[in-house]
Amino acid sequence: MTNTYAPEPAAAPGTRPATVTHTQPHRPAFFRSATWRTFGYHGVSVLLAPLGFTYAVTAVSLGASLLVTVVGLVITAAMIVAARYWGTINRNLTASLLGRNIPAPVPFTSRPGFFGFLRSGLADSAGWRAVAHMGVSFVTSVLSFVLSFTFLATGLGCMSHWYWYQWLPEMQAADGSWHRGSMIAPDVFVEGFWWQAAYVAVGILFTFVLWPAVNNGLGKLQARVAAGLLGPTAAQLRVRDLETSRSASVNTADARLSRIERDLHDGTQAQLVAIAMKLGDARERLSAAESSPELQRLLDSAHGTAKDALTDLRSIARGIRPAVLNDGLDAALESLAAGAALPVELDYRLPIRPAPAVEAIAYYCAAELVTNAVKHSRGTGIWIAVVEQENRLFLSVTDNGTGGANPAAGTGLAGLAERVRTVDGALHVSSPAGGPTAATVSLPLP
């Protein structure tokens, strides 16, 4: 392959040289690997299409026939959710052979419980769109393969007709003469040099011009069908962008708060400690010497104010981001359990460390829930469990108290619900009269 370089004038001193343009020879579409990969896609698709069509017909007909029973609903919901795997196969096929990367739809999330799965499965839009793709792709795949193969076979057959026509059986014309070439019209046979040359010209046209255009055009149609039915919708992409932007904003805010906490601890707090020590030293020196009572009272007041300010600052710094989180959420929860007024049992089974923002929210939720249990539950013990499930962190705090907690009453539980929603989390509280109270926080993991 030859690269040609366009000549450029010399750059002036102190200026950046212009970018060199590389011009590569343009190959005809017939000789490009992308064209043959597209042809391979049509071949693979026409083999998979009947399987997908059979699955779609089975899912719809079986679900409709058993609709009056719970079994029919379960089968339909399961087949709709399982249709997502068809979408995964076709997205990978489209990316590898057609060069079209299709984003995956929003992952399937089942609601808790048996009927929750039924509702989630029957309402899974990505699964239904995958089923629709099975039906649509059956038509487009068969049509694409038949047209592409027909154009290619026609072109190659016409170009090589001069060679293989000699094995054709002889045919008799109306005038009694015998001919061996292809008959394209009544008593019109492809024989002789000029007819064979015309056939070769038609074959070149079909093979090198028409077939690549038809083949690649149908490949683009297949890619658009797959992108429209197997990828996320515009609304889902918008929601995903908003979630990503919100997650980035929350992480940035958490990093900024962590930096503020370090600055307060290392800077302002250290300065207040120095001021309090100096005021204490001055008060002791003046008490040893004879000084006016007014000056002594002023120093006592200033020393007390410095100590109060230091206490308040430490409380503010702990409220921004506890320093114990620097050692991880497990260490922070162990410290929380050790300092609680009630016995606390901790079960921590998280295989990875959460993002800083998620880690901070999980700790604050645990601290608030433990504080509520100590103040209001009138129980004798608290249990904290942290586990990972379906790429989410689940934090549960349970006490054996009298129950009756109501998140809708405007208490601290409502504030926790607002806090966890900032990172696409959820809070569920179960607190029947007589207890126990179980609060579960669900947060995303990286």
From TrEMBL:
Q: Which residues form the Histidine kinase/HSP90-like ATPase domain?
A: 363-445
Q: Indicate whether Kinase appears among the record's keywords.
A: yes
**Which Gene3D superfamilies does the entry mention?**
1.20.5.1930, Histidine kinase-like ATPase, C-terminal domain
Stored SUPFAM superfamilies? ATPase domain of HSP90 chaperone/DNA topoisomerase II/histidine kinase
List, alphabetically, the CDD domains matched.
HATPase_UhpB-NarQ-NarX-like
Catalysed reaction, written as an equation: ATP + protein L-histidine = ADP + protein N-phospho-L-histidine
- Report the superkingdom from the record: Bacteria
**Signal peptide boundaries:** none
- Domain spans labelled Putative sensor: 44-230
Cell inner membrane found in the keyword field: no
- InterPro entries named in the record: HATPase_C_sf, HATPase_dom, Put_sensor_dom, Sensor_HK_TwoCompSys, Sig_transdc_His_kin_sub3_dim/P
Keyword entries, A-Z: ATP-binding, Kinase, Membrane, Nucleotide-binding, Phosphoprotein, Transferase, Transmembrane, Transmembrane helix, Two-component regulatory system
Q: Which residues cross the membrane?
A: 39-58, 64-86, 138-164, 193-214
EC numbers for this chain: 2.7.13.3
Q: Locate the Signal transduction histidine kinase subgroup 3 dimerisation and phosphoacceptor domain: which residues? A: 258-325
Annotated stretches, region: Disordered: 1-22
Q: What is this protein called?
A: histidine kinase
Q: What is the lineage of its organism?
A: Bacteria, Bacillati, Actinomycetota, Actinomycetes, Micrococcales
